[in-house]
Amino acid sequence: MKVSSEDELAEVVRGARGPFRIRGGGTRDIGRPVAGEALEASGLSGITLYEPGALTLVAGAGTPLVEVEAVLAAEGQRLAFEPADWRGLLGTAGEPTLGGMVAANVSGPRRVQAGAARDALLGVRFVDGAGRVVKNGGRVMKNVTGYDLVKLMAGSWGTLGVMTEVSLKVLPAPGAVAVLILDGLDDARGVAAMTAALGSPYDVTGAAHGAMGTLLRIEGFAQSVAYRAERLAALLARFGPVRVERDPGAVAALWRAVRDVAPFHGVPGDVWRLSVRPSQAAALVARARAEAGARGALYDWGGGRVWLLMPEGEDLRARLGAFDGHATLLRASRDVRARIASFPPEPAPVAALSAGLRARFDPRGILNPGLMG
Q: What is the domain extent for residue 298?
């Protein structure tokens, strides 16, 4: 079922006789399979307000992300958190939407400098599981008392409500960009180089390591980028030769590959995402290779996020046991996702809070039930 207005959506939810599978653009088939009628929100589309001078954009949750990015680019602006496109990784079609991006809190390599998707959210409108229209936040960075639903909706995966409208803070695009590349570093030295770069005063906006080398990105005014790239290259010289790529197209392609986890596109196997302490990342990946058969790794966020290519059906959490971080199953077959929880288990106090929120906003349990369980 596809809805085209907030009122229609509220009426459909109020009259529901069973659960719904909430769908935006259909590009992120993640989590336990949900039994229920498909409820598609892509009809809630269109930019309703854009004020470049105020760095503010408001649009329907079903608005294609590519449309938003094109409008921003025409004014020399962008979504600073660099949202990923996982169609190549997951083998899906469709168009990523603004609401789907927020629901998954999709945040790319620039998160280390600009924050996550939830940090750019100013306000949301959504229909909860009782069919009520709820609004929180607005067009300024200020929240009302009570629930901070702006933050709660980011990463809720449609389990608290179906978003209808999103308000976002946007930022100017930089005038110049450069990426420093170190080749041939092993994982431990790659993480050490990223840590050194991120701890420097040179405002690094991306730090990744994998088969493409160790990548450090600098953005800003041309003169500033040139100076900072030179100084950072000198700082990193102890790790080996440093190449500097300044062509905007080549730089964009490198970071798009990191953002979208391109090394694992079309490669058989499950894909897990680890959130870990960078200082422990290389050792944990070595364990995953030795004890769980991991076949590939891509480090992002300076080592704080690690993508692992695993044998199909392997329970990485069970193999690794407890560690200081958590693991999310991003790509696997429906059968595997039915058997292995995609999302990490929550500590008991957090689980109690989550259950309370779902009882408050989805008392009948009809919105993506079980998806995050």
A: 267-339
- Alpha-carbon distance of 35 to 20, in angstroms, equals 8
Dmax of the chain from CA atoms?
65
pTM of the model: 0.94
User: Mean pLDDT throughout 133-141?
Assistant: 67
Cβ-in-10-Å burial (0-12, 13-18, 19+) of 94 comes to middle
pLDDT value at position 143?
A: 39
Q: Assess contact for 115 and 56: CB atoms under 8 A.
A: no
Q: What is the pLDDT of residues 44-96, one digit of tens each?
A: 999 999 999 999 999 999 999 999 999 999 999 999 999 999 999 999 999 99
Tokens for 353? 């809070």
Q: Which of 172, 192, 219 is the last residue of a domain?
A: 172
Domain stops at, among 259, 277, 292: 259
Q: What number of residues does the chain have? A: 373
